[in-house]
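User: Can you help me understand a structure? I only have the sequence.
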Amino acid sequence: MESNTAGIDAENEIKSILIVEDDDVLRQTLAYNLEKEGYTVYTAADGAVALEQGRAHEPDLIVLDIMLPVLDGLSVCRILRREIDALIIMLSARANEVDKIVGLDAGADDYLTKPFSLGELLARVRAVLRRQPKPPPDNRLESDDLTVDLIGRKVHKGEKELTLTFKEFDLLAELMRNRGMVLSRDLLVSKVWGYDNAGDSRTVDVHIRWLREKIEENPSKPRRITTIQRIGYRFER
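Assistant: Let's start by predicting it. Here is the structure, written out as tokens:
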């Protein structure tokens, strides 16, 4: 495996990308062009190597094909979502809505259908990386008048301290850390409750409703936590 750094991005910070694709020509083409854009690039041709590379390098972004030898892309996505903090763009030759939902439910941040143009892939990479959350200063998350103290586990709306349950706090923190990104119900169950069980996704809906009653000006017309139909939720601002 080789990696190169051909430059820097607009924020003067080199981003790293892991390309997981079993088609040799496509993998090499993507690697070459992403390196030309200034990214550090790692590659893998199967799911097992993808896990090794992801764990070893903890890239900022993974471009991940679904159909892979040894271990499929959905499994790779679910495993690495638990272990490293990386954005994921999933690639698939299947374009129907169900497959896209499955990919997003597995933890992908974006989904691109084959065949795609190089320009579209590069635009998606730039867009996803722009949404990458930066580490909060002093262990605080802020959104307008809403402040979350991650160390003290306190939430303030303006001058008022809000009373949140343990899971409400963890759910809010997870959403705010990933503001602008769609988080599926299953991913939230895994991140906040610590286990994988699609049957428990209703628990997320209930806690979201409780959270909205505490942080939204109008819980029936939420502006902070919005629902993405059939997928999950997104913290907007």
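Now, to help you interpret it: The helical segments are 24-36, 47-57, 73-83, 97-105, 118-130, 166-177, 185-193, 201-215. Residues 16-130 form a domain with the Rossmann fold fold (CATH 3.40.50.2300). Let me know which part you'd like to focus on.
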